[in-house]
Amino acid sequence: MDTDLKTVQTRDVDLIWSIVFQPDLWETVSEDNPPTFRPEVISEAWVLITNKDEPIGCYNLHSLNKITWQIHAFILPEHREHAKQSGRLILRWALDNLDFRKIQAVIPALYPNVYHFTLHQGFTDEGLSRKSYMKNNKLHDQHYLGITRDEVEALFHD
Q1: pTM (2 decimals)?
Q2: How many other CB atoms are there within 10 angstroms of residue 12's CB atom?
Q3: C-alpha torsion 2→103→114→7, nearest 10
Q4: 5-157: CATH homologous superfamily?
Q5: Domain boundaries, the chain
Q6: C-alpha–C-alpha distance, residues 31 and 153, integer Å
Q7: Residue 103 contacts residue 71 (beta carbons within 8 Å)
């Protein structure tokens, strides 16, 4: 386990912006003609991942309802070797900082690497939303994945 990786919640919109809108990352994760994006740092959690205090990415978690949060990952391409470890760290952070019963991820089917990464983190495939994501002028399905609080806790007690 890489002990130099750390999580810290941030409300620094400029820092979030510098990660999310890094050209190689934003062009990959954004849909065609995305709505105007401005990080919401009060009602949503933006969690910075650092390696030796250098930002390597961030995660966004936002509440869908009282018990369910949705997660989005933004790991910079040049730091993807830390992605698996960052996935464990964000789940640990969520246990320590959020009152959740479930975390949900929605992943366009055209990103099988992200889908398999999320399964590897302990999420379960819960279904498919057909033709619900537009990328490169083509409609794509999206996978819905989820992990319960009990399942996250079990990851850290085995």
Answers
A1: 0.91
A2: 13
A3: -30
A4: Gcn5-related N-acetyltransferase (GNAT) (3.40.630.30)
A5: 5-157
A6: 33
A7: yes
User: Mind listing the pLDDT tens digit for each residue in 75-127?
Assistant: 999 999 999 999 999 999 999 999 999 999 999 999 999 999 999 999 999 99
Q: Which residues contact 62 (CB under 8 A, 6 or more apart)?
A: 40, 43, 44, 45, 69, 70
- Separation CA 93–CA 7 (nearest Å): 7
Going by pLDDT thresholds of 50, 70 and 90, the confidence category of residue 158 is low
C-alpha dist (Å) from residue 48 to 59, 84, 112: 7, 15, 24
C-alpha 45/C-alpha 81 separation (Å) is 24
DSSP for residue 35:
P
